[in-house]
Amino acid sequence: MRDKALSHTELAQGRFRTRKAGGGRRASGRRDAVRAGEAAAVAPSWVGRRPFTMEALPDGMTLRDVLAWHVLPAPLAAVLADGDLPAALGRLLTFAPLALEKGKPLAFCGPSGGGQTLALARMAVSHVLRERHVDAAPLVIACEAAPEGTARLTAWLKPYGVPVFRAETAEVARAIMAHKGGAQPVLLDLPEGGVYTSGGLAPIREVIEQAGCSPVVVVPAGMDAEEAADTAAAYRQLGAERMIATKLDQAGRIGSIITAAACGLALTYAGYSPSVRGGAARCNADLLARRLMVVPA
């Protein structure tokens, strides 16, 4: 109820902060200070535009060895093991863009600890730094029951002038969205859900349906491939069509990423840094092929 009681006052304040974030000398000065004080994430060697060649295979390993090390399920490994790896990845998987949409809110979801909140913050920051007009900052809603759940998201976005609102329920989230600017994009950080728990995804389904949002699944590298497949299948039933791969800088094996994408989720971005400024690259077949070649010496 507290969120409802504060809706008019805090939303008015939030929209005022949003207008400042999108334009004006004061907001521009703050953004310039942030740019000067926070370096963009440094991309690893496998992020780039150079074409993949089989010369990138680690010494003493065949392509089948590499795929086995990444713990790809046997049927997927068999498809990728013969011939041109990027071409095989392109036939097996779908790649798609992901951008903020004025008419369709984006809702970030996925397994606990998978990096969905960071992925959302990174998209919000990228949008603010790219846009110059008034009301550029998106409306960000953290679907959390506890105030502490929004603390990290607020800490990441406050320097960029992006307000964060907490919604305890789907009803509150919808009420907050009713007060947004006409052209203001919306990002929702969905609550945690249990794929293996009866009714564990019910709160997520409720927000998606009431807010009319498009779910984006965040899948971390290093996850068990079979559980990644279960996760992708479960969120596909909630309407998810796209995914973001995360933690490619922290985990060695990326079989979970390819497996989840093979279950029908289009790959959009690959996260390679804990930074909210940069730290992700558009995903394509060549990038995945280069990342598959990163194995311990």
Main sheet specs: 8 strands, mixed
Mean of residue pLDDT? Answer: 86
Order of helices and strands: HHHHHHEHEHEHEHEHEHEEH
Rg, rounded, reads: 20 Å
Outline: globular
Q: Would you report the number of β strands?
A: 8
**Coarse structural class:** alpha/beta
Please state roughly what percent of the residues sit in beta strands, choosing from under 5%, 5-15%, 15-25%, 25-35%, 35-45% or over 45%.
5-15%
- Strand order in the largest sheet: 3-2-4-1-5-6-7-8
What's the helical proportion of residues? 40-55%
Quickly count the helices.
Answer: 13
N-C termini distance = 56 Å
Low-pLDDT segments, ≥5 res: 1-27
How would you explain this protein's 3D organization?
- The chain has 297 residues and is an alpha/beta fold.
- The chain is built from 13 helices and eight strands.
- It has helices at 2-5, 7-22, 25-37, 63-69, 74-80, 85-92, 116-130, 151-157, 170-177, 202-211, 225-236, 255-262, 285-292, and strands at 106-109, 139-142, 164-166, 186-189, 214-220, 242-246, 266-271, 280-282.
- It has an eight-stranded mixed sheet with strand order 3-2-4-1-5-6-7-8, with helices on both faces.
- Strand 2 (139-142), helix 8 (151-157) and strand 3 (164-166) form a beta-alpha-beta unit.
- Helix 6 packs across helix 13 (285-292), helix 9 (170-177) packs parallel to helix 10 and helix 11 packs parallel to helix 12.
- The longest helix is centred in the N-terminal third of the chain and has 16 residues, at 7-22.
- It is globular and about 60 Å long.
- The termini are far apart.
